[in-house]
Write a structure and sequence with these properties.
Elements lengths: L1 H42 L1 E7 L1 E23 L5 E6 L6 E2 L4 E5 L2 H38 L2 H34 L1 E3 L4 E3 L9 E2 L8 E16 L3 H10 L5 E5 L6 E15 L4 E8 L11 E18 L4 E3 L2 E7 L5 E5 L1 E6 L2 E6 L6 E5 L10 E3 L6 H9 L1
Parallel strand pairs: 1-20
Antiparallel strand pairs: 1-19, 2-9, 2-13, 3-5, 3-8, 4-7, 5-6, 7-9, 9-12, 10-11, 10-13, 11-12, 13-18, 14-15, 15-16, 17-18
Length: 391
């Protein structure tokens, strides 16, 4: 009886389990197929698709620069005296030759008058000596001795030298008088006034009256690694025009001014392994100021028709840089690339990508290898994507 009951209980337990297994076997594949048919649409990743494009791209070298005045002059006095007037305002633009200050000219005018009077006296003595010499020569040795004639000739030459010295004294006194009027040696902008009206100034004073800086044009000294020196000098020799230089702000990419490369320094700094370069900017809007730190972009050359993509399309992984290429079945695939330059939202692709290849340009944070892509805004070219970013 016990065996019979055990058999009956076992049968009761096995029959339902067998039914469940049979139902799953029959219906499992269908549900799996149904689930697979809905998965691509549900897992499609929204992203913006664009295409790699070919265009001319300028190659730039970046450096850190310091603005310097094109010319700087500390205006000093060249004579001693009392400062009668100051004829400029602090921060005023002046031109070369403008009167900046006036020193009391009276002592120097008196010295000039004295030099002129001395010359007039000596000139009169010279004329009288010349008349006597002429009389002695006309009378000859019958009326005068040869010694008298020779002595009178020497006196004439002596007075001629005295008159010449008087003329030199006049010119020196005139120069000293001219120095009492202090003029600007260059065109530029005045700084803070260093001496006030009424003070006694001396030619030996080291501080000067004012510092004038020339701001138009203006210079920028910047550095580049020594490894880039060969490229720069090569392009300077090949280019018929000076290389273009762009000055940008330190905290942003705002263009302050555009100028040209003036020179490359004749030595490399061994402590930093860098070389100094000097650029000149017109500075029409006074956006560059002496002592200002800026970012400098040196346009080295222009690459014709290279493959470009928006900078946002380039991703960085453990194996280097890559982009997501969109296959014909709308799935994403990782494509390693070699990037030459990234600037103004455009990346130059040296290897790994051809022009016209569809790529993901935005929304990559959700994209993975093999992800289905749902395009949310096709951009036909990299340039259009760059233009939208700037806009």
């Amino acid at each position: 009886m016990r065996r019979r009951w055990l058999v009956i209980v076992a049968i009761c337990l096995l029959v339902p389990a067998a039914g469940v297994v049979a139902w799953r076997v029959a219906n499992g594949p269908a549900k799996a197929r149904q689930s697979q048919s809905h998965t691509p649409q549900q897992q499609a990743v929204p992203a913006t698709v664009g295409t790699a494009a070919k265009k001319d791209v300028a190659i730039f070298l970046s450096g850190l620069g310091t603005v310097q005045a094109f010319n700087t002059v500390t205006v000093n006095t060249r004579v001693d005296g009392q400062l009668d007037s100051v004829n400029f305002k602090e921060g005023q633009n002046v031109s070369a030759g403008d009167v900046l200050a006036q020193i009391d000219p009276r002592p120097f005018q008196a010295a000039l008058d004295l030099a002129r009077a001395t010359k007039a006296k000596d000139q009169a003595n010279l004329e009288n000596a010349q008349l006597d010499l002429r009389r002695f020569q006309e009378g000859g040795t019958l009326a005068n001795t040869q010694q008298q004639i020779d002595t009178q000739g020497a006196l004439v030459k002596q007075l001629q030298a005295t008159v010449a010295a008087d003329q030199a004294n006049i010119e020196s006194a005139q120069v000293q008088l001219d120095y009492t009027t202090i003029r600007s040696p260059i065109s530029g902008r005045t700084g803070i006034r260093l001496v006030d009206k009424g003070n006694i100034v001396h030619a030996t004073d080291t501080g000067g009256l004012v510092v004038i800086t020339q701001l138009q044009p203006i210079s920028v000294i910047f550095t580049l690694p020594q490894d880039q020196l060969r490229e720069v000098t090569q392009e300077m020799n090949l280019s018929k025009t000076p290389l273009k230089v762009i000055a940008e702000g330190r905290t942003d990419t705002q263009t302050l001014d555009q100028g040209t490369l003036a020179l490359v320094d004749n030595r490399i700094d061994q402590t930093t392994g860098s070389v100094r370069l000097k650029a000149t900017f017109p500075n029409k809007d006074y956006k560059l100021w002496p002592g200002q730190y800026i970012n400098v972009e040196l346009q080295l050359k222009t690459l014709p028709q290279v493959v470009t993509v928006p900078s946002g399309a380039v991703q960085r992984g453990p194996d280097g840089m890559y982009v997501y290429v969109v296959k014909p079945d709308q799935t994403a695939a990782i494509q390693p690339v070699t990037v030459g330059q990234m600037r103004d939202g455009t990346a130059v692709i040296e290897q790994g990508l051809n022009a016209g290849t569809p790529i993901v340009v935005a929304g990559q944070y959700r994209v993975q290898q093999g992800s289905k892509i749902r395009n949310t805004g096709t951009r036909s070219t990299a340039a259009r994507a760059d233009g939208a970013r700037k806009g």
